[in-house]
Amino acid sequence: TSYGEYNEMNTSSTSSTLVYGQYNQIKGTGTQTKYGTYNSLEATGGGSQYGVYNNMQSGTGIKYGVRNEFADIDGTKYGVYNRFDNGTSSGTIYGTYNIVLNDGPSTKRGTYNQVQGGEGTLAGSFNVITPAATNSSTIYGVYATVSSNGTGTHYGGYFGASGHGNRAVYGTNTSPNGYA
Q1: What is the CA radius of gyration of the chain?
Q2: How far apart are CA 45 and CA 56, in angstroms?
């Protein structure tokens, strides 16, 4: 095993102070791009590569793999931003990939979005898909598969919209051979 940096801490179970394995604070008024942490993985071997890997093994409190908080500041904000360069590389690409494996009785959600407040358009999920002009594959804006396991009612999609004049599902199609 090789380490560029290795931190190991043993904290008291009675301590109520914050504990940081690493703490970065960047201040200043410069207009240059700033990185709290910058990882460039350029190994050419065939093994898996992780920019950040978090492994939580014990404790009873709430756990966050990644937690981002933004003050009420101007400018566009991204909680997570993933970009894959245009090209011809092979292999499936996932912008976000979640696996939730748990047989406990608690609610499980692969993705949970809560958007509230203010003026302007609100969307819990917004997808823009632009295939190449030569693409002859089936394209889905949203695709869901639900297995037949279990005894409860199964829904491939469930949509609700409260209030007079609202629509749980709304579709348009401008193609003369299409349908909504």
Answers
A1: 23
A2: 27
CA of residue 20 relative to chain centroid, distance: 24
Asked if pLDDT for residue 146 goes beyond 70, the answer is yes
- 14's tokens: 């009675």
Given the structure tokens 């931003």, which residue do they identify?
81
Spatial distance between the Cα atoms of 3 and 23, rounded to a whole number of angstroms: 18
Q: 13 falls in which pLDDT band (50, 70, 90)?
A: low
Dump the DSSP string for 80-112.
S-----SS---S---SS-------SSS---S--
C-alpha to C-alpha distance for 76 and 134, rounded to whole angstroms: 33
What is the band of 170 on the pLDDT scale with cuts at 50, 70, 90?
A: confident
Residue ranges of alpha helices (H) inside the chain are: none
Measure the CA dihedral 97/101/106/110, to 10°.
10
Q: Are the C-beta atoms of residues 98 and 80 closer than 8 Å to each other?
A: no
Gap between the Cα atoms of 134 and 16, Å rounded: 60
H or E segment at 141? none
Which tokens hold the place of 51?
């920019």
Q: What does the block give as tokens for 161?
A: 């919209």
CB hemisphere CA count around 2 (13 angstroms): 1
- Rounded CA-CA distance 180/129 in Å is 17
